[in-house]
Amino acid sequence: MIYWRVTRIRLRMFQVCILLTLFISMMGIFRALNTQITLIDDSIEDQGQLHVHVIRSGAAVKDCAEPQTQEEARIEVGHAAAEQLHSVTQELIEIKRLLRGAAPIHRLEAALYRVNRIAEELRIGDLSSLIQTELEHPTPSVKTSPEKVDVCPDTFKGSTYGYPFFYTGWVRTNCTNAKPLESVVTIIMNFMYEDNNVNVVSILRNISRLYPTVEVHVAADLKLPKDLAGNGNFTVHGDLAGETNAEIWYKLLLKVKTPYVLVTRGITRFTWDAQLEQMIHSVSSFPVDFVGSAFRTNDGRWNMGCQQSLLRNFTLSYRDGYDASIHECIYCDSLRGPFLARTSVLKHYKFPSNYRHFVFEDVFLQVKELGKHHVVSCPDSMFFVKDYDALLREKINFVPIASTWGINRLHLAEGIEHVFSCSEANTPCRKVKGVAVSPCCLQTLADAVKFLMRTCEEEHIYCELQEGTMLGAVKLGKVLPWERDADITFLSGNYSAFKELRPKFEHEGYKFVDLGQQWCCVDNRTAGGKFQIGVEGWTIEMYGQHLMDSEMMVERGQQPTKVLFDGMWVNVPTNPGLFARNRYGHEIYKHAQHWMTLGYESGWAKYDTSGFSPCPQTGHHGCLDQYSTDGNLQFEGRELL
After folding, report:
1. Mind giving me the DSSP string for 116-157?
2. Of the residues 123, 139, 299, 517, which has the fewest C-beta atoms closer than 10 A?
3. Of the candidates 262, 252, 327, which has an alpha carbon nearest to the alpha carbon of residue 293?
4. Over 90: is that where the pLDDT of 29 sits?
5. What local confidence, expressed as pLDDT, does residue 491 receive?
6. Cβ contact 491:551 at 8 Å
7. Which of 15-24, 48-57, 174-183 bottoms out in mean pLDDT, i.e. has the lowest?
8. What is the pLDDT of residues 540-554, one digit of tens each?
9. Nearest residue to 136 via CA among 109, 118, 159
10. How far, CA to CA in Å, does 425 sit from each of 282, 313, 341?
11. What is the pTM of this model?
12. Coil, helix or strand for 620?
């Protein structure tokens, strides 16, 4: 069970709001700088004395008791504005990193370039350098001092140097200050549950040939042949048999004493394509903590090994690709193949013991949630790995991750989708203020509404969606994520016919309550009548109505109006958009929480779009306050902003 940590959450809409706020702050600084200089010009007294009473935008309030020249005043105000500009720029850079790949990122970069030009004009050298470093990623300088480096850097020899096969082009320098490789990296390998098609001995022999001094820890039911047994750098941990994969990986990690560890998950061969030295150079030279690689399967399919992920509203989605790069590497949320990590950083994360597969998918979700460590893939490094397609298609392999993170839907980059029940995902049907109801729970209500509406149509009973249920259908095409019940009207004249359906509902597991309450009359018609249909914590309130739009449409020879509700076309009032506007008033396409949640006396209370309630579990992917109170696309569950 994950204990949700308070983190800086990378939630796109929230960050865009922050971004707008910061831009407004910057505009305030520029206006303030101009205002302050104007005030200074106007405040020169007869003897050259200056009284600066207010410095806006956070600068200190000051009353100069001593005479001060105009130039001194300009310098003082300039320093104050520069400090504010520097602070805002640092915030913009941090948000740029968090918004990586979001739609406004190019505009933010353009704004930083503009700030850079201002910094250059104002001769704020350190600020200009800060921005250039962030935007242009200058090549790490080669250290020529005696200071030790993890590996020697490489240098590019030109575009024709490796012609025609380009096995080379970047050449590692022969520096004299590199540490011994065995003091820098350790390799861990887990073959405990691999099939016999993986030649573990061949893999170990290749490692011994390429990196003879590097320490290797192997989990396998294996006895080393003589040529490898004599290599004291290889340790086989056969005693880990019976442990889960998560436990095996964690115990192997505890054996590592070097600053970096190569996690060779899923490999079938080990060749010079691994480019281990370059992986080490990347992690030690760039501001990153995990360096992944490309991979190819045994049938030749190549992949750059980089995925972006989105965990939002009980849905986890993956997409292959990248939206930002640093030198010859690309930023990722999750790595698919083998990877190199800072040992101390990897040890910081949990390895849930019940995981048999996809251990590191959980680890990278933790990395993204915490938001402190950076992940890249450098596709010039490549490993040969097994094909995971069969494992990806088995839903049971993902149940542990669904249970740990409360995931009802999983969309894999391969186009595979898995849906988990509330019990599998450990997401009981709770209705908490400030938190969306889990999709599996909402589906229970949606299925009940569809069963009821289908039954009404089959039995020729007039029924229509009403209140928030209809509003959800109009705005989202489904149940509102913050719903508390469902509302449906039926024709009062069909009261007896609907009452006769009790056995059908009870046979399907629904609770059927007849509350009566019919009365006479409206327009010479019987009115009223009420039923309640209950299922797994939900109630559908059914109210009798003496006259209904659907009935009138049929009498005119027309089909009743239908809206798409969770994949089914169901009856609603003739003009549902007009009905909703007249029912709820202003700003109906913005979102308002259920009146019960807000503590109002009835559903007739004012439609309140002021914002979602604060989330009691800060950082949880089900929090409503991560969303804008406007727009329906944000609730689709698969969007990667």
Report:
1. HHHHHHTT-HHHHHHHHHHHH-PPPPPP-SS--BSS--EEE-
2. 299
3. 262
4. no
5. 97
6. yes
7. 48-57
8. 999 999 999 999 999
9. 109
10. 38, 13, 30
11. 0.77
12. coil
Q: Cβ atoms within 10 A of the Cβ of 309, count? A: 19
Structure tokens at 496: 């007896």
CATH topology of domain 182-417: Spore Coat Polysaccharide Biosynthesis Protein SpsA; Chain A (3.90.550)
What is the rounded distance in angstroms from the CA atom of residue 234 to the CA atom of residue 597?
A: 61
Contact of 186 with 214, CB cutoff 8 Å: yes
Torsion, CA 44, CA 46, CA 48, CA 53, rounded to 10: -40
Residues in the chain, total: 641
Nearest to 97 by CA among 375, 363, 443: 375
Residue that the structure tokens 């004299």 belong to: 176
The position carrying tokens 């080669």 is: 142
Dmax of the chain from CA atoms? Answer: 101
> 275 or 32: whose pLDDT is higher?
275
* Residue whose tokens read 């990196």: 211
Between 261 and 78, where is the model more confident? 261
CB 442 within 8 A of CB 478: yes
DSSP H or E run through 295: strand 290-297
* First vs last C-alpha separation in the chain: 28
pLDDT, tens only, 212-221: 999 999 999 9
